[in-house]
Amino acid sequence: MKRAAFFIILALAAPAAAQTPAAPPKIELPYTQFTLPNGLRVILHEDHSVPMVTVNMWYHVGSAREITKRTGFAHLFEHLMFMGSGHVKPGEFDESLEAAGGDNNGSTENDRTNYWINVPANSLELALFLESDRMGYLLDSMTPKTVDLQRDVVKNERRQSVENQPYGEAQVVLGEMLYPEGHPYHWPVIGYMDDLTAASYDDVVAFFKKYYAPSNASLVVGGDLDSAAARKLIEKYFSDVKPGAAPEPMTIPGVALKGVQKKTITDRVQLPRLFLAWLTPRHFEPGDAALDMVADVLAGGKNSRLYKRLVYDMQIAQDVSAFQASQALSSSFQIVATPQPGHTVAELQKVIDEEIQKLQREPPTAHELERSVNQVEASFYNRMERVGGFGGKADQLNAYYTFTGDPDWFNEDVARYRALSVGDVSAAAAQFLPLDKRVELTVEPAKKP
Amino acid sequence: MSKQIPFVVVAAICASIALTAQAPDRSHPPQPGPPAPLHLPAIQKQKLSNGLPVWVVELHKVPVAQINLVVLSGTANDPPGKYGVASLAAAMLEEGAGSRSALEIADAIDYLGADLGTATTSDLSAVRLHVPVARLADALPIMADVALRPTFPKDELDRQRQQRLTSLLQGRDDPPTISAIAFSRILYGKGHRYGTAQMGTAETIKTLTSDDLRAFYTSAFRPENAVLLAVGDITADKAMPLFEKSFGAWKASGAAASEKLPPTDEPPARQVYLVDKPGAPQSQIRIGRIGVPRSTSDYFPIQVLNTVLGGSFTSRLNMNLREVHGYAYGASSAFDMRGAAGPFYAAAGVQTDKTAEALKEFFNELNAILKPVPAEELSRAKNYVALRFPSAFETTGDISRRLEDELVYKLPDDYFAKYVQNIQAVTAADALRVAQKYINPERVAVVVVGDLKTIEPGIRALNLGPIKVMTIDEVFGPKP
User: Is B294 on the interface with A (CB under 8 A)?
Assistant: First the structure.
């Protein structure tokens, strides 16, 4: 190891001393940042533990920017980014990276699209060439045929992840029930089949010009690199990428559920499944971290309240989970449970509602909250082990930059959890999980023909 | 604290500054510089007073540690009639140990911010702990209870049993699971352990008792059949006394046992198996035959060959089925290597109305791979496998898995050091030889799980071989 690339200073209280507040652990992840004349924000992070580097690009656009009748387009567009560009022949993007020992991928969510390339450190320049070429010259090689081909691939991705996936339609229906028509989260990221069919070459040109300008993106380059040398290479390869106009800011539509919205759908499954969902505060807003803890107290681990009652003691459920799905425009809180054969979703819902109400009335014990917060703290270390790929350090720096403006928001983030009292947890459950304003979706096994 | 909104900042900048830098030369992709040397972490091999080997790798990067107790017995050691006992015994370790109940174990581990889990493969059973180093001394005694003093309580067993039966029931919903279970049974039959899922069948799961679990545990979990692996922000000097305290007094009881796998038969002539999944929008295809054990001397040529065929994004199967025809989201192939010869297979989920066309393309590729691989394609595959090798040593979890491989498959001490040169030494002749030896498209099983009434006529018209239609009950046994 050339030098310690970063370190984490941590002072966790021993369990016996759990009542004394622990000194805040400081997570240090050194980085430098600069902005190119064309508006591209760049963040560099050195970690010399293995001779690999990662190039991680986030475009600040996701399915929330789509328009009616063109749902799924941000994701279809993501697929087109791997098909070659002005100076990269079709197929050459992946071929040249594999020949260098590299891997790459991308993903689309409601609020952003990300791309990463992991390569041996000596091929950093190749990765920057490819990443900059598709940012600058994607349309030079785009054809209607390319769009047609990836349309077929994406339709098969939809079949695989939604239609042929047990309970796969439920998340699509939940979005439609939580958000009214026209709300940017009403439709699924993967889109609807008819809209995928309708997507055209002209849509590709318009979307690229509107959302793929360097000023609407941020680049993190991390790993076994020298920051000064990497900066020179980045300036070299991104300098000819032309600036573009910034897209209009997103408005954040107000949204609320007025009562209980109930629905039952069928699927080719053996067992029914219950989905309860609420609209909750946006990520990093007051209530967001507390709801993470509500989720953990309810369904994280064997001693969580719902797991212990439904799965462990009563043995009427095969599984139960709860989570706060935090997003930029609105979040949702979900509880999902599958009954054991011979039991019903109604039995599960009765117990779930009892436990929600109990948590709304009485705060969790100090031990319950500490157990959950300790796990959150530990997860921050675990997230420091890998540099590249989805969820690696580069991806995390880019996520914090994109959503808070500060790449190094780790300590602020963990502090949100440490600051919580047991009363905050029950208050969040009371305020954000009303039993009379939520979505109740049941998936029932389809009858045999 | 003021957090700036990104697009406002950058918009202002791009409006005010003109481009000045010189455009790069984009006429050729840049060539790589000299490769950086890979410094493999040293494995410090030591022993506790009871003879239990301990392998320590220091990785002073993040203050965490990965501690795995690995036992060299897995589901391949399940006695006939007791399929699933290894997997259930491992799962039950956490359900009561020493004086602790299942809930107490989970509470203590969660409170420490640690992860404790058990795992079983064909060839090993393991208790794996990932923990902040500051909590290592607190977590080890719990891990030791779980690994050394399980109590196999009957009520916990009944609960686990029901969970597994329900999981098996839910497996009927999932086409990839159905195709994998059907494929293994077709290749290996009922009498070979590889022919049945790791967790066993509903029939065996129902009959396993606490005594069965204890018997398996006693024969497998023994210091002379185990190794403790420790990777992370620790030093051997400081960690060994902790390991000695938790694991040094462990003694075996009863007798060791080992189940021998029966030999496998020559693969039969090509046959097609169709499993009906009415209404399915995709057909799940799996094509293959019995491959090689992990000990094969052809390991490196097979890695390269499989990368060309279906082991990377630009591999032939993925390019053909996804990027040329758009029939699938992805297609791949694999040699699943274990203690004995595991399966080779090529697989994809393809859209229902293109099932026969997709099968035809699978066979085009399985036949084409029997011809010499062009030099550039071979070189790309070798580089893909060799040059990214350093990333296999990035995290404590990564390194512990490499150690498990070395341990379980008795790899030589210089195995990782020579890995890259062994891959680079594979020639076109080697790749051709192993393709012709192990991939015989005339003697494969073809499993397709899909909407029978739509796909059957097209598949029959391909004349691939005799066709057997199977029900899901034939794959899983009668519904529990």
Answer: no
Residue A397 CB coordination number (10 Å): 26
Domain with CATH 3.30.830.10 in chain A: 29-238, 260-363+421-445
Q: With a cut of 60, say whether residue A10 has pLDDT above it.
A: no
Contact (CB<8Å) B170/A271: yes
What structural domains and CATH numbers belong to chain B? 44-247 (3.30.830.10), 271-405+417-476 (3.30.830.10)
A444 in B contact zone (CB under 8 Å): no
pLDDT at residue B268 tops 90? no
Whether residue A313 lies within 8 A of chain B, CB to CB, comes out as: no
- Residue A104: its H or E element: strand A103-108
The torsion angle over the Cα atoms of residues B192, B194, B199 and B200, rounded to 10 degrees, is -30
Following DSSP, what letter does each residue of B10-24 receive, concatenated? Answer: HHHHHHH----SPPP
ipTM above 0.90, yes or no: yes
Q: Is the pLDDT of residue B335 over 80?
A: yes
B326 and chain A: CB distance < 8 Å anywhere? yes
Using CA atoms, how far apart are residues B187 and B194, in angstroms rounded to an integer? 9
Cβ pair B387:A216 closer than 8 A: no
Residue corresponding to tokens 């050195």: A46
Give ∠ CA B236-B241-B245 in degrees, rounded to 5.
Answer: 140
Cβ-based neighbours of A447, under 8 Å, separated by 6 or more: A266
Asked if A122 lies within 8 A of B33 by C-beta distance, the reply is: yes
Query: What percent of chain B stands above pLDDT 90?
Result: 89
Distance CA B217, CA B89 (A): 7
Q: Which of A27, A373, A422 is nearest to B110 (CA)?
A: A373
Distance from C-alpha of A38 to C-alpha of A242, rounded to nearest angstrom: 6
- The verdict on A377 touching B (C-beta cutoff 8 Å) is yes
Let me know if A252 is exposed, middle or buried by CB neighbors in 10 A (0-12, 13-18, 19+): exposed
Strands A331-339, A273-280: parallel, antiparallel or unpaired by DSSP? antiparallel
Q: What is the mean pLDDT of chain A?
A: 93
- Find the Cα–Cα–Cα–Cα dihedral A23, A27, A32, A35, rounded to 10°: -90
Measure the CA–CA gap between A186 and A175, rounded to whole angstroms: 5
Task: Tell whether the model's pLDDT for residue B34 goes beyond 50.
Answer: yes
Please judge whether B349 and A249 are an interchain contact, meaning their C-beta atoms are less than 8 angstroms apart. no
Question: pTM of the entire structure?
Answer: 0.93
* CB nearest A52 (choices: B112, B175, B390): B390
In B60-119, the residues whose Cβ lies within 8 Å of chain A are 60-64, 102-103, 106-107, 110-114
The residue to which tokens 């203590």 are assigned: B108
Question: Above 60 in pLDDT, residue B9?
Answer: no
Encode B175-186: b = buried (16+ Cβ within 10 Å), e = exposed.
bbbbbbbbbbbb
B251 burial (CB, 10 Å; 0-12 / 13-18 / 19+) is exposed
Name which of B22, B38, B111 to mutate to probe chain A: the one with the most chain A Cβ atoms within 10 A of its Cβ: B111
**Which numeric CATH code is attached to A29-238?**
3.30.830.10
State pLDDT tens for residues B105-145. 999 999 999 999 999 999 999 999 999 999 999 999 999 99
Place of tokens 């046959």: B271
Listed in sequence order, the residues at least 6 apart from A296 whose beta carbon sits closer than 8 Å to its beta carbon are A304, A322, A372, A375
B residues 190-229 near A, CB within 8 Å?
none
Query: Shortest CA distance to B54 belongs to which of B160, B152, B140, B166?
Result: B140
> Which chain B residues are Cβ-neighbours of A101 within 8 angstroms?
383-384, 386-389
CATH number of A260-363+421-445: 3.30.830.10
The closest CB to that of A41, out of B6, B8, B36, belongs to B6
Q: Which of 227-246 (B) contact A at CB < 8 A? A: none
